[in-house]
Amino acid sequence: MMEPQHGDRPHLPGPSLYPIGFAAGIACILVGLIVNPKVIAPIGAVIAIVFGFLWARDATKEYRAVPEPIEPERHEPLQDAQALPANLGEPAMPESEPGERFPRSRFLEASTLGLGAVIGGLVTVPVVGFMVVPAFEGQGYPNVDLGPLDNFPEGKWLITTFYMHPEAGTVSRRTAYIRNNGQLNGEPSFTIISNRCAHLGCPVQPNGPEQPDQKKVVQGVKGQRITLVPTIPAGGFGCPCHGGQYDPEGNRTAGPPVRSLDRYEYSIVNGRLVLGKPYSVAHVEGEGKDAKIHAYKLAGPGQHVDGWEQILYPIQPPH
Amino acid sequence: MAVAPTRTRKSARRQKLEAAIIYPLDWLEERSGLVGGLRYFLFRKVPGDTNWFHTLGSATLTAFLVQAITGVILAMYYQPDPNSAYQSINHITNDLTLGWLVRGMHKWGASVFIILLFFHMARVFLFGAYKYPRELNWIVGVLLLVSGMLEGFTGYLLPWDQTAYWATVVGINLNGTAPILGPFLADFLRGGAEIGGDTLSRFYSLHMLLIPGLIFALIGLHLYLVVRLGVTSPPWSREAAGGLGPDDDYEPARTNGRSGLTQPTARSAWRRNGGNA
Known about the structure:
- The structure holds two protein chains of two kinds.
- Chain A is 22% helix and 24% strand.
- Chain A contains four helices and 13 strands.
- Chain A has helices at residues 18-35, 40-59, 61-64, 104-132, and strands at residues 144-148, 157-163, 173-184, 187-194, 205-206, 216-219, 225-231, 237-238, 245-246, 252-254, 263-269, 272-285, 292-296.
- In chain B, helix 5 (99-126) packs antiparallel against helix 6.
- The radius of gyration of chain B is 25 Å and the shape is globular.
- Chain B starts with 11 loop residues before the first helix and ends in a 5-residue tail after the last helix.
- The A-B interface holds A 132, 134-136, 139-141, 164-165, 168-172, 200-203, 241, 299-303, 312-317, 319 and B 82-83, 166, 169-170, 172-174, 176-177, 179-180, 182-184, 186-188, 190-198.
């Protein structure tokens, strides 16, 4: 690896493939953490460790080599020199041993810094992991039982308020606009639109009268409490924050939103309407039970799910 | 010839008093050098024609210290829990003695701090005080500005009312629209997929521990660079910064003369010397 030293050529290590292999291993770990943490990430770790070891071995080759023996310097005593008395001579300084390449002080410096780095890493890695990782773990949307189908008369919109996590209290209260579309292929069909604006997440409101005098409250299990208020969103939905407007199917008609309103999956269990996971919608063709929904994995407000802009948001956190 | 006692002679009582004051200071100075350090900091040379615009930095520092002190006191009564945060803010404002005042100082002082930051930045920009050799201090100042804005963003959620909640929803979703990493940044800020109790305590911790610590450290670095590099003269000044004037006995500041380099005269001399000040 080392070029022969001659002249005043700078003392530089020769080119080596090991750092490149090491970097490839690290890249493989990072990609693997996202794509497949159980298979690809360990492969990357193995690559990184192997190449890191080879790199370290290559880089320290000179230090570890057996030092070439050096002829001890000989002082030829001068012919006429008189022996100096001890109190006039220079104090005896211990000469560094010939061939000593790694003095004790440098070893102590390196070990202090290295030990500090190890301690810092041992503290930092778990602390940063604790700060970051829980935000991405166990994030999901539970099924919410919204009560018997009888509460959802056909063709009527209901402002449905429920608790995503009843034990968490008011902070988990969510709203969906639900319409019973009647039967489709022998199954009840529902339109369930999230009230989260596709611009920046404010709560959209129905553009039309609400009928709070017909409010209905359904008590569920574990503190679940569902309120149903009929509304007639003839003008669709509008956002109070920045003026985004949607038609009754949730398609954007005006303003800053980048896509349609999100919707919820649903299922019918024992004659009850059960809310599933939310998903994002690029746009909807048709309406009611005949609607053709261009559905995508749930994305945050303001994030494009279709068109060329979707390349800006290639990966969504696990929800 | 009898010598009349001079007027300047101090009475024994006064001498004792002075000794009593000076002794502990000497004790401290001998063991730490802190008194001399403070004197060096407070009585260092500045250009003779500094003006009121040069006080904006100190004003910003004062505003930050007010925020730090009132914030520490507010933290004694505030409860960062989704079910009691709003009530505890109500309690502070309406029930506790002078709570309305301390909370008001913190709330309005936040705006004062940010406004003064911008005024200070405008002064530095318009005076050209960001130029060599003070570029690094401008960068530190920008980091301080960003940290101050983060304080505003995280603090705005803490009252946990409708304004706070929805403003934070919008703010976090705005971060979520950043390319590639935006969705992850939003989840990190929320502490999950949805805003909840974790978001509140997370913002509280960032607001009162992490970011203020960062700001204190950056202010220390900022002030160190101010003292090391000296204060810039106004752009209309005829004197090189660091000097006092032709009649004063000029002592070069301990900056190797580098503090005057934004001045036209000093700068041209610097150029003539081929860049060696």
